[in-house]
Amino acid sequence: MAVLSKYVIIVSGGTGSRMDSSLPKQFHLLNGLPILMHSLYAFYRNDKSIKIILVINKAHQKLWEDLCKKYAFEVPYDLVYGGESRFHSVKNGLDFIFKQESFLTNVLIGIHDGVRPLISQEVINRAYSTAESNGSAIPAIKSRDSIRIINAKKENKAIDRDSVLIIQTPQVFRADLLQEAYKHKFEESFTDDASVIEKSGYPIHLIEGDIRNIKITYPTDIDIAAIWVK
Question: EC (predicted)?
Fold first, then answer.
């Protein structure tokens, strides 16, 4: 496949309710810069031809614009408003891209959580190159902890942790696969983009993720990320 265009949709519409703060987590500072800016910088540094689509809550637009001015943030991007769920936010980003591109089989689209600021250049490269060859690429790491599963009766039992993988982003796909998959109506089982693709019957290709590629969720996550951020 001859790739003509590469995109990344950076989804950042959350409110950060688990951060014990009224400020959404993507706008908290990490080593002197808002978390979300680290995420955008990672893709801009990787390949300046990657077109960045930033999806945010409309209510956060003024706050984000003020931060961009304060920190002289000049990474180019297109802004799209989020929807009622992550699924709908991604769909809004995809719809924006589909209006720009005619030959979707020659387009790769990555989808990344805005609060994963430590994404490495190696994982970004691996994700796009694998998706170019196989149609999809989903970073995953093994669990280091013991795992137990709970059923509907609240009963729990241990399972083999080697059979469990922790999924990360960016998840990268050929654009025509995403266009077909996102014709589905939202389902609660759609916890990430791979689950939407899988619903359409397309195979999911896993790649090696990075233990440092954490999702900022709790205040202590910022302290951990500050040790690793470059």
Answer: 2.7.7.60
Domains with residue ranges and CATH for the chain? 5-228 (3.90.550.10)
Dist. CA 6–CA 17, nearest whole Å = 32
Rounded CA-CA distance 80/28 in Å is 21
Instruction: Dump the DSSP string for 103-121.
Output: -GGGEEEEEEETT-TT--H
Tens of pLDDT, residue by residue, the chain (230 residues): 666 799 999 999 776 566 667 899 999 999 999 999 999 999 999 999 999 999 999 999 999 999 999 999 999 999 999 999 999 999 999 999 999 887 788 999 999 999 999 999 999 999 999 999 999 999 999 998 999 999 989 999 999 988 899 999 999 999 999 999 999 998 888 889 999 999 999 999 999 999 999 999 999 999 999 999 87
Q: What are phi and psi of 205, to 5 degrees?
A: -105, 115
Tell me how far the alpha carbon of residue 21 is from its chain's centroid: 22
Residue 76: C-alpha distances to residues 37, 114, 164, 171, 218 (Å): 11, 15, 37, 21, 29
Q: Count CB atoms within 10 A of the CB of residue 69.
A: 9
Encoded tokens for 88: 């709908």
Q: Which residues of 152-178 are buried (b: 16+ CB within 10 A; e: fewer)?
A: eeeeeeeeeeeeeeebbbbbbbbbbbb
d(CA 156, CA 77): 46
Give the pairing type, strands 206-208 and 5-12. unpaired
Taking the C-alpha atoms of residue 85 and residue 83, their distance in angstroms, rounded to an integer, is 6
